[in-house]
Amino acid sequence: MNIVFVLFDNVTQLDFTGPVQFLSRLPGAQVHVVSKDGQAVTTDCGFSILPRSGFADCPQANILCVPGGHGVRDAITDPVIVDFVRQQAKGADYITSVCTGAFILGAAGMLQGKKATCHWAYTQLLPLLGATHKPARVVRDGNLITAGGVTSGIDFALDLIAAISGEDVARTIQLALEYDPAPPFGGGSLASSSEETVGILRARVYDKAASEMKTAIQQII
């Protein structure tokens, strides 16, 4: 069971480290963390991640996972990254993404005619790549599984583990990693947050980020 995570500079590390922590415990799993040249990639937290190998040395994925991050803007215009994802997707049993990683799948042609999700601040851009947004933390359409923002990657991983190895296995992994969310505040989703909080965050970060993502997508469609 080859699980391939595709990394790139300025990746959101929890988009990757959340699901990989869970999926690495899937019975029979072999995790392959890869970047274009096998070199370390930067994260949005100020440290780097050293992949296992480059694209050239990566085996065919059974599960292909593409995380997100502000680096997606550059990744979707990089033909090497997009073609690698496209070729891996052809032979994968499951094609998956977390957060804005969905746009890399879209650049590779994987979202056309599909239901999908991503981080709430970018969902309005999914139709540009042929997808219909479905508001959920995890959306499955055939063998395509897309997760919402950041922490949704853990939910997607558990759903996929249950689909492959059964709910009992998923539950034991959930317990082993003590995934029992009890956040100190409400408002962890768009629907449960105040208009004021959403407005502040959009103005501070996401209006500009979404505009830049839209510009990048328009370069490839």
3D structure, described in words:
- There is one protein chain.
- The chain contains seven helices and eleven strands.
- The protein is an alpha/beta fold and 221 residues long.
- The chain has a single domain, classed as Class I glutamine amidotransferase (GATase) domain (Rossmann fold, 3-Layer(aba) Sandwich).
- The chain has a seven-stranded mixed beta sheet, sandwiched between helices. A two-stranded antiparallel ribbon has the order 3-4.
- Strand 1 (2-6), helix 1 and strand 2 (30-35) form a beta-alpha-beta unit.
- It is globular.
- CATH T-level topology: Rossmann fold
Our measurement of the CA-to-CA distance between the termini, rounded to an integer number of angstroms, reads 33 Å
The shape, in one word, is globular
- In CATH, the homologous superfamily goes by the name Class I glutamine amidotransferase (GATase) domain
Total strands: the figure is 11
Which CATH top level class fits?
Alpha Beta
* Mean pLDDT across every amino acid position: 97
Level-2 CATH architecture: 3-Layer(aba) Sandwich
The strands making up the biggest β-sheet line up spatially as 5-2-1-6-7-11-10
Number of domains: 1
| Radius of gyration from the alpha-carbon trace, in angstroms | 16 Å
List keywords for this structure.
single chain, 221 residues, alpha/beta, Rossmann fold, seven-stranded mixed β-sheet, 7 helices, 11 strands
Can you summarize this structure?
With 221 residues, the protein is an alpha/beta fold. It has helices spanning 13-23, 72-75, 79-91, 102-107, 152-165, 167-176, 195-218, and strands at 2-6, 30-35, 41-42, 48-49, 53-54, 63-66, 94-98, 115-116, 132-133, 138-141, 144-147.
